[in-house]
């Protein structure tokens, strides 16, 4: 008899950001029971879990809205105790602003946070000491809108995707410098392979699909960047434009495809149900897909790689998927009545 994918998850928690809440909600990973909701500073976007400090780091990116239509950029990170579910500190990165992407290096006690450009500096990545919770410096990425950031397992190389710049920025984390620009026509989410040999990047920039119809739009897909040569060596095709990308511990590459219909009243279009599409990172074969909610925006997985979690901001839902059978196990409603919200996700294993 096959063991349930929920087995052995007692005490594990899924943390979910609602950007319109603005809240951080906690769910039992074994039963989906709602445990708690914490009010946090508006407007939170992404969240990551530091298992060493047992802290959640949450970016507050804008006062309202989203990348290409916002009410002003914020400067703060909210730090939350994952076990007591209380705010420990609000770290202000000013004059840096628009913090969004998060990448954690537990071995070096470093957190990397992408930030948007200002009049006097390009976009970049702020480096934070996770023990003192203080910034150590910044690395320029030479682009206005780095939005997601990922590092290789060695903690020596980082990749920043740039929504509007026609390249992915590659940075040397030890020297703190930009080392390469990989030609990609605007990019969204990304993940790095377990051995650091490849980066998988969603392209093109989704905003290019929300404007008027016209020719010249690049094909959607996942660009495969070889670390050794800092060049694109393959493309995994997708039917829809992709924002989130996540690599599981078992080598499954999870991508969230948007599906929209033209709508003159909305720059984002009329949303249709999105899809979670799964590839093998090793063979680059498409393994399957499953329908999810409206506008998938963030993906994570359980540490054993058996369960995927997809947050969908327009439907404000999180879809829990068995990655072995590609069946939806449940749906979590992250609702503030009448408003979109579900965004950042973090899986929090129980404390030993």
Automatic annotation (TrEMBL):
Q: Where are the transmembrane segments?
A: none
Domain of life, source organism: Bacteria
InterPro entries assigned: Host-pathogen_enzymatic-act, N2O_reductase_N, WD40/YVTN_repeat-like_dom_sf
What name has this protein been given in UniProt?
YncE family protein
High-level lineage: Bacteria, Bacillati, Actinomycetota, Actinomycetes, Kitasatosporales
């Amino acid at each position: 008899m096959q063991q349930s994918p929920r087995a052995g998850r007692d005490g594990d928690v899924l943390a979910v950001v609602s950007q319109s809440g603005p809240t951080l909600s906690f769910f039992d990973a074994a039963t989906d029971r709602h445990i708690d909701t914490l009010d946090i500073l508006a407007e939170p976007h992404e969240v990551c879990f530091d298992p060493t400090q047992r802290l959640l780091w949450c970016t507050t990116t804008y006062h309202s809205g989203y990348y290409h239509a916002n009410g002003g950029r914020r400067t703060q990170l909210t730090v939350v105790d994952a076990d007591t579910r209380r705010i420990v500190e609000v770290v202000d990165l000013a004059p840096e602003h628009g913090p969004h992407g998060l990448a954690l290096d537990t071995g070096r006690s470093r957190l990397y946070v992408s930030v948007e450009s200002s009049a006097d500096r390009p976009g970049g990545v702020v480096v934070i000491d996770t023990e003192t919770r203080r910034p150590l410096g910044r690395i320029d990425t030479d682009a206005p809108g780095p939005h997601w950031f990922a590092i290789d397992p060695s903690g020596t190389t980082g990749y920043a995707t740039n929504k509007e710049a026609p390249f992915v920025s590659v940075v040397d984390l030890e020297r703190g410098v930009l080392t390469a620009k990989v030609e990609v026509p605007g990019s969204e989410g990304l993940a790095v392979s377990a051995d650091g040999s490849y980066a998988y990047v969603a392209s093109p920039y989704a905003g290019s699909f929300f404007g008027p119809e016209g020719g010249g739009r690049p094909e959607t897909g996942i660009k495969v960047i070889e670390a050794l040569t800092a060049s694109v060596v393959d493309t995994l095709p997708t039917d829809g434009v992709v924002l989130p990308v996540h690599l599981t511990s078992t080598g499954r590459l999870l991508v969230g495809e948007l599906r929209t219909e033209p709508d003159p009243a909305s720059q984002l279009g009329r949303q249709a149900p999105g899809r979670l599409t799964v590839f093998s990172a090793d063979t680059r074969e498409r393994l399957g897909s499953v329908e999810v909610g409206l506008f998938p925006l963030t993906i994570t997985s359980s540490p054993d790689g058996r369960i995927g979690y997809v947050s969908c901001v327009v439907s404000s839902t999180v879809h829990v998927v068995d990655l072995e059978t590609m069946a939806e196990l449940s749906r979590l409603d992250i609702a503030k009545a009448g408003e979109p919200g579900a965004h950042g996700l973090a899986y929090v294993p129980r404390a030993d």
